[in-house]
Amino acid sequence: MTDQSILTTHDLTVGYRNGSQQVALLNNLNLHLDKGKLVALLGQNGAGKSTLLRALTCDAPALGGYIEAEGKEISSMSQKDRSRLIGLVSTERIQAGALTVTELVGLGRQPHTGFLGRMDDEDREIVRQAMADAGIIGKADSYVASLSDGERQKAMVAKALAQQTPIIILDEPTAFLDVASRIETMRLLQTLAHERGKAVLLSSHDISQSLLLADELWLITTDRQVLTGTTRDLVDSGAMDRIFNNRDIHFNSKILDYSF
Amino acid sequence: MTYRRYTVTLVVLTLMLVLLALACLAFGSVDIPAGRIVDILSGKGSGNKAWDIIILQSRIPMIATAALAGAALSISGLLLQTTFNNPLAGPSILGVSSGAGLGVAIVILALGGSLGGLLGENLGSYMAILVGALLGAGVVLAVLIAFSAIVRSNTMLLIIGILVSYLTSSVVQLLNSVATEEGVHNYVAWGFGNFSGVSVSQMPVYAGIIILALIASALMVKPLNAMLLGTRYARNLGVNVTRSRNILLLITGVLTAVVTAFCGPIGFIGLAVPHIARLSLGTSNHSRLIPATILAGADIALLCALVSVVNPHGIIPINAITPIIGVPIILYIILNRRRIQYFN
Questions:
Q1: I want to staple B308 with a disulfide (CB 3.0 to 4.6 A). Which of A207, B41, B126, B316 is the partner?
Q2: Using only C-alpha atoms, what is the Rg of chain A?
Q3: What is the mean pLDDT of residues A83-111?
Q4: What per-residue confidence (pLDDT) applies to A30?
Q5: Degrees to nearest 5, angle at CA A165 with A161 and A170
Q6: Interface of A with B in 176-235 (CB under 8 A)
Q7: Contact present, A67 and A9 (Cβ < 8 Å)
Q8: Residue A260 pLDDT > 50
């Protein structure tokens, strides 16, 4: 725990409910998310990445322990307060094809606007700035339906920026993107963390990309531990090998040395 | 650019509303000269008592009934399409109308009156019928919520709605089997759909409830727009999804129940009109969609009302006209779903 921590989990246990049974996937997690850092959550499919993120965004209840942010337990915060704390980018299918990018990003202002959601000039400027920061301003008046997958992801990131939350959580943000868009999205997220001081947490199964750009990793190992640390430390300690079931897969730390 | 399109669309829809209302005033089973109609409207009277009554107590209430019914059903359809994230949802296809119809049938039978007959002038009895319709619509909406949590597929939810319709109509048939012959006749007539069922004295209740519910829907613009992104995003934007959905379905239930109780179960308007509004505005932003849907719904219902009365051989049932307008629109939507923005 450092004074840069904005989100901390205390003995958090996450999993799912199957009828009346509770199935814990990850037990007693004590994690902290820092301002200004890009953190990648890595693990195999089914390891519990999405479940952990759902717990952090309060989309699923914690089976044990609690999550604290800004000195408060987030599950007891009002939905409105939470919407000003964490901005979400998920892979959920959206029905917003007939909105313009500006309208979509404008939805990010909802936590800050009144009952009818009317935006004033300041809100509109924040939306414009969010689109500029996310590199999607050129498509401001385009329909969301006309965007490529990469552009759509940028628009969703802009939505999260317009939300003006100190934390941005992204569930598989690069899952459907081609290589160029993946790199672009990751660079964008890195910039937001380093230059805007946001705490950015993303899940991914694209390991090489995350190793290159993430400041920290949260690794879910095959024995359901979550190992955390800087990317360099985890690679050097051989921890990377523990996220694979296959003993024949080993991680070569030289991969970190290539640049682009 | 989009604002201009919005303004133009609203102006056109409003002009159509005025023209259709005037046409409904001028045409009917009895020919009344236009000059006399103006005299009646200006309060001078036409000198013909029958004409005065036809205009003031039949055509004007029918115009108001149709316009409000069209607006109500169309907003119901829009709210259902957004809350269930399903472009083919609508109050009749999901069985909400038939649920309300079943409620009406049960209340009429319980009151000892004839099944499905025209609503009486007695305030108590038609309020009871309204409550019956509301409960019937509410039960169907509750069933839909329950199933939507279990079956995630949109198509399956539509099929469940259709099954619910079959089930309610079979219950109504069973009720009919113990009802009087007159009751059955009345019920069948009610099932045809009819905008002439609201009398001048019932109008305040009918119009009041619908207008309040329409205003309530306009106040839900913010959660409706957030719901376009799905429940997880909506929650992350601070929307209490469960509460918003319940409010939206309550509004839908009230609108559908009131229209169904007074006008019969009217199909296709609720399903088709939101698409007309989306296609003409080119947006799914509810702050613009709601006014356009209200106006377009009123227009379509008035068009149906007009067609139903211009036949010299008698009145054509509303439900014989709505599919002719609605089905081509639905087919167009289905066939072009890859091309239409709001599907992507």
A1: B316
A2: 18
A3: 93
A4: 95
A5: 70
A6: none
A7: yes
A8: no
Is A19 within 8 Å of chain B by CB? no
Residues of B in contact with A95 (CB under 8 A): 82, 85, 228-230, 284, 342
Q: What is the pLDDT of residues A176-191, one digit of tens each?
A: 788 888 888 899 999 9
DSSP string covering B22-84, please?
A: HHHHH-SSS---HHHHHHHHTTS--S-HHHHHIIIIIIHHHHHHHHHHHHHHHHHHHHHHHHT
- Of B133, B146, B163, B136, nearest to B259 by C-alpha is B133
ipTM score: 0.91
Q: Is B237 on the interface with A (CB under 8 A)?
A: yes
For CATH 3.40.50.300, the residue range(s) in chain A are: 1-85+166-215
Domain A1-85+166-215: CATH superfamily is P-loop containing nucleotide triphosphate hydrolases (3.40.50.300)
Overall residue count recorded for chain A in this entry: 260
Give the mean pLDDT of B239-262: 94
Q: Residue type at A207?
A: I
> Which residues are registered as beta bridge partners of A16?
A23
Question: Would you state the pLDDT for residue A4?
Answer: 81
Query: Quick one: which H or E segment has residue A69?
Result: strand A64-69
Whole-angstrom Cα Rg for chain B: 20
Q: How far is B218 from chain A (nearest CA, A)?
A: 9
Nearest-CA distance from A234 to chain B in Å?
A: 32
Q: Which residue has the tokens 């133009």?
A: B8
* pLDDT, position A258: 44
How many CA atoms lie within 13 Å of B18's alpha carbon, on the beta-carbon side?
A: 5
Higher pLDDT, B344 or A112: A112
pLDDT band for position B112 (cuts 50, 70, 90): low
Q: Strands A167-170 and A86-89: what pairing?
A: parallel
